[in-house]
Amino acid sequence: MSIATAPRATAGARWFNQPPGLAILFLTQMWEIFSYYGMRTLLVYYMTKQLLFDQQHASLIYGVYVATFYFTPIVGGVVTDRWLGRKRAVIIGAAIMSFGHFLMASESLLYFALAAIALGNGLFLPSLPSQIDDLYAKDDPRRGSAYNFYYVGINVGGLLAPLVCGTLGELYGWHWGFGAAGVGMLLGLAIYTLGARWLPAERPKPRDVPPAQRMPREAMRKRILALLAVGLCVMVFRGAYEQSGNTIALWADVGLDRAAGAFTIPMTWFQALNPLLVIFLTPMLVMRWTKQAAGGREPSPAKKMALGAFVVAAAFVMLACVDASAQGGAHWSWLAGFFLLFTLGELFILPIGLGLFARLAPAGHAATTIAAWYFASFGGNLLAGALGTLWSVMGHAAFFGAMALVAATAGTLLRLLDGAVGRAEAGNAPAPQSSTEQA
């Protein structure tokens, strides 16, 4: 099958009014997210409680691991676009990641296991979402909401991860939780392989893109500069955002009253609030944006992203006030309120940014451009890990206030970039990539 026929292969099919290939892609990543967040939910607790690492050491390892997890896609995206192709990259990457998750069963292989997961992810992560655009013709009205549906789908995995892997690890033993994460990765691999007929064909390699479809140098420069600037802002934002699995998890353990009657809520369950809220809040936001778009009032991507960063900053301000005034531990409902604001802000910035990078991807460089989006997570997680070391030397309220400042800084910069991003989108429409798109 040529890429020219890929959108027509699914044009008559429906899955919630979307091509069935979208379901295959997000179900595959749903299980990858399940395995990733399932292991990540346990990682800090495992290092501090089982391996007896001190908090600063554990936070640094956590930050470096998560950062590396988002760095390897830069190399993997280039390898995918130039040599492997997206389908083979997903399969190879998923197999390596499964192997790494099962290696977590051995305490002595901790670093090797983390390296294997990060390596496999380098091939997997940029290759999967870069296939979404090819499920649709350029004039397909469903294309605009595809990344929102995708983001909801994969967050089901994020919801299940702490409930399954976290509960198994916390109540029955860490290795049970890590093993469940490995099984989830294998399920994702099976779904992707069995559903391959619904997926789009491979895009041409960069060297095979016809000259007529190559982007003019000036247009390419504007896009690269706009994406680079947005990526740097998101990198700053993630310095605060990624505290949710690091210092926020530690605060839930020591600074929170987790009693609900006679029942004490497990620490890891709070990590399920974020994906649960993503699932419920996204349809409401999509309906609001659709209504605004119909009236010509929908905010631009950069404005949405800026607003998201400011909402996350407000969530940290709330937590700082709660911690400063709480006596004997804050009630768990305050953390639930934090995640409500936190998730609302996230939905304005992360799926919007992913879609922006996908739309501005030059022909032949889809996986590499998506990898560049995730590279912002690399720098952001390094920053988050470094900021996390301040947890032990700053008061908790002061630390949360500092994270609010970090998020607000990112929001201010994104708002200033609105004009440049708008020009990159509106003034440099991509050349047609297939006969289907021209039809």
Automatic annotation (TrEMBL):
It is found in: Cell membrane; Membrane. Keywords: Cell membrane, Membrane, Peptide transport, Protein transport, Transmembrane, Transmembrane helix, Transport. It is a multi-pass membrane protein. The keyword Transmembrane helix applies. The chain crosses the membrane at residues 21-39, 59-79, 88-104, 110-128, 149-169, 175-195, 224-241, 261-286, 307-326, 332-358, 370-391, 397-417. Residues 21-419 form the Major facilitator superfamily (MFS) profile domain. The keyword DNA damage does not apply. Pfam families: PTR2. InterPro entries: Dipep/tripep_permease (IPR005279), MFS_dom (IPR020846), MFS_trans_sf (IPR036259), MFS_Transporters (IPR050171), POT_fam (IPR000109), PTR2_symporter_CS (IPR018456). NCBIfam families: yjdL_sub1_fam. Belongs to the major facilitator superfamily. Proton-dependent oligopeptide transporter (POT/PTR) (TC 2.A.17) family. This is Peptide MFS transporter.
